[in-house]
Design brief:
There is one protein chain. Helix content is about 10%, strand content about 60%. With about 130 residues, the chain is mainly β. The strands form two sheets. Strands 1, 2, 3, 4, 5, 6 and 7 form a seven-stranded antiparallel sheet that branches. A two-stranded antiparallel sheet has the order 8-9. The longest helix is centred in the N-terminal third of the chain and has 11 residues. It is globular. The termini are far apart. The relative contact order is 0.30. The structure holds zinc ion. Zinc ion (ZN) binds next to strand 5.
Length: about 130
């Protein structure tokens, strides 16, 4: 269990924590609120991310992610759903630049060999190798 403090960067803090704790395989969930969000949408036609920011205070109504290895280092992959004051929802792949207001994180470390990401030319993304 982990609490992220106001002003911290969601993705950077999670990454620093799992690397410091040497957590190499895990699932994680989180909730709370952010001051601003920096998210990505993966365009399946162009195989490129489209980045966008939401410059407002938002509730984290659902955050999910996993930890695996990329280039031998623990790597966070997280998606989030956020809601504004009217309850309208936004979502996407969490990018650096998402500023926490407060965030509660549950990290569930997994046993066994951690998945190792390798580049997949079909998707244009580093996917888990040896798992299909
Ligand atoms: Zn993603």
């Amino acid at each position: 269990m982990l609490r992220l403090d106001a002003g911290s960067d969601l993705l950077e803090e999670l990454t620093a924590y799992v690397r410091h704790q040497d957590i190499r395989a895990a699932s994680l969930t989180f909730l709370g609120a952010v001051r601003r969000a920096s998210l990505r949408y993966y365009d399946q036609a162009t195989l490129r991310y489209r980045d966008f920011t939401l410059n407002e205070h938002l509730e984290v109504t659902g955050g999910v992610g996993n930890v695996s290895l990329l280039d031998g280092e623990p790597f966070i992959h997280a998606h989030v759903t956020l809601a504004d004051a009217a309850g309208r929802a936004f979502g996407g792949h969490v990018n650096t630049g998402t500023e926490v207001f407060v965030c509660e994180v549950s990290i569930h470390e997994l046993n066994g060999e951690p998945p190792d990401r390798v580049f997949d030319a079909t998707c244009g993304l580093p996917l888990w190798g040896g798992i299909s």
